Structures are given as C-alpha cells and as structure tokens.
Amino acid sequence: MNLAVNAQDAMPDGGEIAIDVAPVELDAAFCAVHHGAMPGPYAALIVSDTGCGMDDETRQHAFEPFFSTKHDQGTGLGLSSVYGVVKQHAGSIWIDSEPGHGARFSIYFPAAPPQAAQPEGPVPSRQAYRGAETILLVEDNEMVRDVTQNLLQMQGYKVLSFASGLEALSAVEEGAAIDLLLTDVVMPEISGRDLWAKLRLKDPKLRVLFTSGYSETAAEGHGAIEAGTDFIQKPFSVGGLAAKIREVLDRER
C-alpha cells in the first residue's frame, strides 16, 4: 500500500503503476553488488511507476524514518515502514530510479528459510547495537511510536509502548520492570522530564534517553531537559538510534 501511494504521489499528472511477482534465483554476482543479499531462491515483488523519479541523495536516505521530500504533505514513515516489514521477513529491498524516469522498488523474500552461515568479512556494525533489554517507549504521535517500536524490536529489544506518560506510569506501578526509558520531551499531561522524575522515585538508577523534534540546545534552553542528559533529535536514523541506546545502556552506572 505504501509503495502504491508513493507511486501515486510521484505522478500528479497521471502515469502507470506496475506490480509484478515472480520466482527468482539470486546468484553470487547479484549479491556481490547488492550488499546484504544472499544467494538462493526468492519470491520477487517489483513495484514500478513512471513518475518523477529520485536523485542519488534521495535514494540513499529513502528508507530512513521521518525522511520525506513531500514537506508538510508527508511524514517520512511510509518507506521506513516498508523497509521494516521486508526485514522482519528476512527479505531485501532495492531502489532503481533516476530523476524524470520513474522508480522501481524490487523486493526479494526468501522462498525457504536460509541456511545459517558465518558472515564473510566484518559483521555489519548494526549487529553490535542489538540488545535484549526492556525499553519503555513513550511517544504521543502514533505513527512515530509504531515505527520506533518496530525498529527497537528489530534490534532484539522488548518494548513497552505507550501514548502518554500517565499510561506508562500506571504500567510501571503495576510491576513492569524496565531497563531504559525512551521518551519524547514535549507531551500532553506530563512531560518527558517529569515522567522520568516520577519513575526515578521507584528506580533511582533508571536510565533515560530523551528525543524531540527540537534540537538539544533548544530543549535545554526551554528547561525541557537538564544539560548533559542523553538526547537524540528527530528525525533519527536506525543506526543512530540503535547506537545511542547501546551507549546509554552500556555506560557504567
């Protein structure tokens, strides 16, 4: 659905959307130039359009959460959601596009569970940022909350997700054990800073990572967070969020 909607938006004056499916065998030559792909049998799903296309810089950032070329008309969550779904099913996705020549999204889902194999060369850095801890996620924007939860679960974390600080407080009071609070700074009813202060009455050593669309300097200047508190600004990349979470969790108390 997200790919179709994106294709439609790329063709305001009309055009064509093509959706093709086929069994394919990815060989070593293909995988050598498509990092992350593994040789073997796959089911291909290819969605293409005749729209405005993308330049190289846009293609490089297309799957990042909150990245959008639609300005106020888009959230930047459509393609990041697609990426998350594909990866959850052990698939891969690639973009072929040039400005003025449309776009083609090629998705490959493994036709059978891949055999475990030792990776060749360096292990992707994102693997080093995985974890199994429990994260309390508090975010009042539903789309941002859902995407962030998916990203965290893809990294191996258990996630308790809530739309407000009051809901999160209730869950903790009922006995939910958490290792890290990941919260938006500005929320209705109770701010992220006040939520952390209340949770620390139960666990004084609770770690926190604040996030906001405001810069860290702006958040500190308005008193929303204390200077020196761990913070990551929206929009954040998958790798950036994963690395920051591990930095906070691995730091000696």
Quick recap:
This protein is 32% helix and 23% strand.
General description of the model:
The protein starts with a helix and ends with a helix. It has a 5-stranded parallel β-sheet, sandwiched between helices. Strands 1-2-4-3 form a 4-stranded antiparallel β-sheet. It has helices spanning 2-9, 28-32, 56-61, 78-88, 142-154, 165-173, 192-200, 216-221, 238-250, and strands at residues 17-26, 40-49, 92-97, 103-110, 134-138, 158-162, 180-184, 207-212, 231-233. The chain is globular and about 55 Å long. The longest helix has 13 residues, at 142-154. It has 2 domains: 2-110, Heat Shock Protein 90 (2-Layer Sandwich), CATH 3.30.565.10; 125-250, Response regulator (Rossmann fold, 3-Layer(aba) Sandwich). With 253 residues, it is α/β, with parallel strands linked by helices. The mean pLDDT is 84. α4 runs parallel beside α5 (142-154) and α6 runs parallel beside α7 (192-200). The chain contains 9 helices and 9 strands.
CATH C-level class of the largest domain is Alpha Beta
User: What class, by secondary structure content?
Assistant: alpha/beta
Q: Spell the H/E element sequence.
A: HEHEHHEEEHEHEHEHEH
Q: Strand sequence of the main sheet, in spatial order?
A: 6-5-7-8-9
Largest sheet: 5 strands, parallel
Count of DSSP-assigned helices: 9
Rg, nearest Å = 21 Å
What sort of overall outline do the alpha carbons produce when their principal axes are compared?
globular
On the 0-100 scale, what is the average pLDDT? 84
What percentage of residues falls in helices of 4 or more residues?
25-40%
Strand segment count: 9
CATH architecture of the largest domain: 3-Layer(aba) Sandwich
The CA-CA distance between the termini, in Å, is: 45 Å
CATH topology of the largest domain: Rossmann fold
